[in-house]
Design brief:
The structure holds 2 protein chains of 2 kinds. By secondary structure, chain A is α/β, with parallel strands linked by helices. Chain A is about 40% helix and about 20% strand. Chain A is built from 13 helices and 15 strands. A 6-stranded mixed beta sheet of chain A has the order 9-11-10-13-14-15, with helices on both faces. In chain A, strands 4-5-7-6-12 form a 5-stranded mixed beta sheet, with helices on both faces. In chain A, strands 1-8 form a two-stranded antiparallel sheet. The radius of gyration of chain A is 21 Å and the shape is globular. In chain A, β10, α10 and β11 form a beta-alpha-beta unit. Chain B is α/β, with parallel strands linked by helices. Chain B has a single domain, classed as Pyruvate-ferredoxin Oxidoreductase, domain 3, CATH 3.40.920.10. In chain B, α3 crosses α4, α3 runs antiparallel to α6 and α4 runs parallel beside α6. The longest helix of chain B has 16 residues. The chains are: A alpha/beta, B alpha/beta.
């Protein structure tokens, strides 16, 4: 029997970590951390998990300690957000380059300056190119479910890469919603025992770790990372999702297609704002407008072919980004355009930047964008490709 | 009330307003309902005006933004009536509940509700002082919200208050809060 409770997104992911009971968790205990690690540390202090908690002096050290523990052969989890993830940046590449299946919860927050602790996606988008698998979550239920699946994806023998699971800071992380927790035994059975590959502590078979690799082989190491991200991860994500559906009844894919089948216009939007936008899509549908929505779940690797197939037949698409690449387009926009470019016939695509530093994404924002898409679909004319919305005058 | 009930709480930091929204969400889980409870996060200071929100729905609640058009407005600190427009965005059939010792008619004149809107008062601070010995109006306000919305039964709410407070407080405080919740439920007046 599933347990139905009202908890925060942070508590939900801490509960997933409790059920999975990782060997080691290294974390930096003050701001910019969230209640997630505090909850998990309480489980450890109260003997609910066997996890060794390592409190370190910075987020850079947190990831370094995770890398050490994972290299030794442990199942390792951690959590961070905002500037904490930014400070880990150097070590993110070490974790993926050493093929260590560390799972990290990222409670999305903005980056300074000015100082702001609220939600946007600048943190995880900054980690986009670090070789980590990225799963994004609309709500606490998805964050919990994605966390459980992330261990299976990261540890899969065809993958062996670190994975991060994103949820929106405050909006999901700190807000209470209804959630269905799976039984402990079921989660333990689903994630299974962890078998490390080539653990450092296998002292009968000594190996080298973190060697210097210069012009002779570095390129090949990166090719290997490219190949697994490009060809293997998608199938593993789908396989794990299919198994997860059997135990939970909840279905996950590479992305969520919402009312897209016969849609002419659509929004592409990550995380919690997708929920708000779905309600608005429904109201446009009630007026007879063929509107839909695509919510990416697997952002790295990005499922280009599948997204192209889902959006290719539409007339106009707006990609909403909660992060900016200053002087460029938003990070989700560039992916969607890359996916669509190979098609002979493709929709007009526009980019809206919204919600930075926790600016509320309101139904009227989604309405405005959908109305603009209706007009583009009729006239075929795009006036502005990239635009900020919700800006105060 | 419709498929999703939206509630806006107005309080001041330190009065337990956010806790009240959380306890209400928990109590409303019954019957397979979907719930949300979240505060508007800003600099957290005792005495500063704050808002908290609830959404209670029979279907999955997907809206993840502040409540703009509440059907229920719960004002935990009546001094906010002078500085905050608590009626802003409220639906035409909204219910206002104000913690005050004043006559509900007087509050009605102050709020100037639309014809379909209702005004209730409860002297939650006095009830809290008498039942708990401290001026935390959140438990009586919870009881009053439960009464004016009919979202959950009083028995169910009391069970939840016991559960929520039981994690943190001594038996005497829990009993006081249960009494305060019950009295809040019983002493609501319509203006």
């Amino acid at each position: 029997m599933a347990r139905v409770m009202a908890v925060t997104g942070n508590e939900a992911v801490a509960e997933a970590f409790r059920q999975i009971n990782p060997d080691v968790c290294a974390a930096y205990p003050i701001t910019p951390q969230t209640e997630l690690m505090q909850r998990f540390a309480a489980f450890a202090a109260n003997g609910k998990v066997d996890t060794e908690i390592i409190l370190v002096e910075s987020e850079h050290s947190a990831m370094s300690a995770c890398i050490g523990a994972a290299t030794a052969g442990g199942r390792v989890a951690t959590a961070t957000c905002g500037p904490g993830l930014a400070l880990m940046w150097e070590m993110l590449f070490v974790a993926s380059g050493m093929r260590l299946p560390i799972v990290m919860a990222v409670v999305n927050r903005s980056l300074s300056a000015p100082i702001n602790i609220h939600c946007d996606h600048a943190d995880a988008m900054g980690a986009r190119d670090s070789g980590w698998v990225q799963l994004w979550s609309e709500n606490a239920q998805e964050a919990y479910d994605n966390t459980i699946q992330a261990f299976r994806i990261a540890e899969h023998v065809d993958v062996r890469l670190p994975a991060l699971v994103c949820m929106d800071g405050f909006i999901i992380g700190h807000s209470i919603t209804r959630i269905e927790f799976l039984e402990d035994e079921l989660v333990k059975g689903f994630t299974g025992e962890y078998t490390p590959l080539n653990p450092l502590l296998d002292i009968d078979n000594p190996k080298s770790f973190g060697p210097l690799v210069l012009t002779d082989q570095y390129h090949e190491y990166k090719y290997a990372q490219h190949e697994v991200m490009w060809t293997k991860v998608r199938d593993v994500v789908l396989g794990v999702a299919a198994e997860f559906e059997k135990v939970s009844g909840r279905r996950y894919g590479l992305f969520e297609s919402y009312r897209l089948d016969d849609a002419e216009i659509a929004l592409v939007i990550l995380n919690s704002a997708a929920g708000t936008a779905k309600d608005v899509v429904d109201s446009f549908r009630e007026r007879g407008v063929k509107a839909g929505l695509l919510k990416p779940r697997l952002f790295r690797p990005f499922p280009y072919a599948e997204v192209a197939q889902a959006l290719g037949g539409l007339k106009a698409v707006a990609v909403l980004d909660r992060a900016d690449s200053f002087g460029g387009y938003g990070p989700v926009f560039t992916e969607v355009c890359s996916a669509l470019y190979p098609l002979a016939k493709r929709p007009a695509v526009i980019n809206k930047i919204y919600g930075l530093g926790g600016r509320d994404f309101l139904p009227q924002h989604a309405e405005r964008v959908l109305k603009e898409l209706e007009e583009i679909a009729q006239t075929g004319r795009v006036s502005v490709i990239k635009e900020y919305i919700g800006v105060r005058e | 009330m419709g498929e999703t009930v939206e509630i806006r709480w107005h309080g001041r930091g330190g009065q337990g307003t956010v806790t009240a929204a959380k306890v209400l969400a928990d109590a409303c889980l019954s019957g397979g309902r979907y719930v949300q409870a979240f505060p508007e996060y800003g600099p957290e200071r005792a005495g500063a005006p704050l808002r908290a929100y609830n959404r209670i729905g029979v279907k999955e609640v997907r809206m993840h933004c502040p409540v703009l058009n509440p059907q229920v407005v719960s004002v935990v600190d009546a001094s906010l009536l002078d500085t905050v427009d608590v009626t802003e965005g409220a639906t035409d059939d909204a219910v206002f509940l104000v913690n005050t010792a004043k006559d509900p008619q007087e509050i009605r004149e102050k709020l100037k509700p639309k014809p379909g809107q209702k005004v209730f008062t409860v002297d939650a601070t006095r009830i809290a002082l008498e039942a708990i010995g401290r001026p935390f109006p959140n438990s009586p306000m919870l009881g009053a919200v439960c009464r004016v919305t009919g979202l959950v039964s009083l028995e169910h709410l009391l069970e939840d208050v016991r559960k929520s407070f039981g994690k943190k407080f001594a038996q005497k405080i829990i009993e006081g809060n249960l009494e305060a919740t019950r009295r809040g439920y019983e002493e609501v007046k319509e203006g």
